[in-house]
Design goal:
Layout lengths: L4 E3 L2 E3 L12 E3 L2 E3 L12 E3 L2 E3 L12 E8 L12 E10 L17 E3 L17 E3 L44 H4 L8
Parallel strand pairs: 1-3, 2-4, 3-5, 4-6, 5-7, 6-7, 7-8, 8-9, 9-10
Length: 190
């Protein structure tokens, strides 16, 4: 399907809950304070775009492409990122709420999460090597059979990662948050 190209355009304070975003290839576009909640952004391509203070909770992501996309201060609750096109996929999240979302069974190597809420997020069966979870809240987040090799959890908090069922080779933790590796063993530390 050939999509029309929309290049270097800024979208501000748009409500896409009743009017759907046009199917297109958006390149170098910025979406600021737009509401996409419960809408359909399937089969849309976003290349080197930025979403700032947008609500994308519960959107339909089927076959959506995110290539070098930055999400800043966005609400992305309840998203199943597995539905997106994983061809040339690359994104990063700054100060976002991703609670109840899923990256299960994906390859998200080198993804950066900074100052994000990632509560009850599913990373099971995910390849997440070289990822950064900088000052992220990972309360009740699921890590099962997850490859976290060389990822950085040194400033992350509220996580519980079972070392026996995840690949933690050269994964970085701080001495202050090591309790997150011991929670699955129900060890009590004074």
């Amino acid at each position: 399907m050939d999509l029309p190209l929309i290049d270097s355009k800024t979208f501000t304070n748009k409500d896409y809950t009743s009017t759907i975003l046009n199917k297109a290839e958006y390149s170098y576009c910025t979406f600021t304070q737009c509401n996409f909640e419960n809408s359909d952004i399937s089969n849309i391509v976003f290349l080197e775009c930025e979403f700032v203070e947008c609500n994308l909770s519960n959107v339909n992501l089927k076959h959506t492409t995110f290539n070098d996309v930055i999400f800043s201060s966005c609400k992305l609750v309840g998203l199943n990122f597995k539905d997106i096109s994983q061809f040339l996929m690359a994104f990063q999240f700054n100060k976002c709420n991703l609670n109840l979302s899923s990256f299960s069974e994906m390859t998200i190597n080198k993804t950066k999460f900074k100052d994000c809420k990632l509560q009850q997020v599913d990373f099971s069966l995910t390849e997440a090597k070289f990822c950064s979870f900088d000052h992220c809240d990972l309360e009740n987040t699921i890590f099962e059979n997850t490859n976290l090799e060389k990822s950085d959890f040194s400033s992350a908090f509220n996580f519980s990662i079972h070392p026996a069922i995840n690949n933690l080779k050269e994964t970085l933790f701080s001495k202050d948050n090591l309790i997150g590796l011991l929670k699955p063993f129900e060890i009590q530390i004074k």
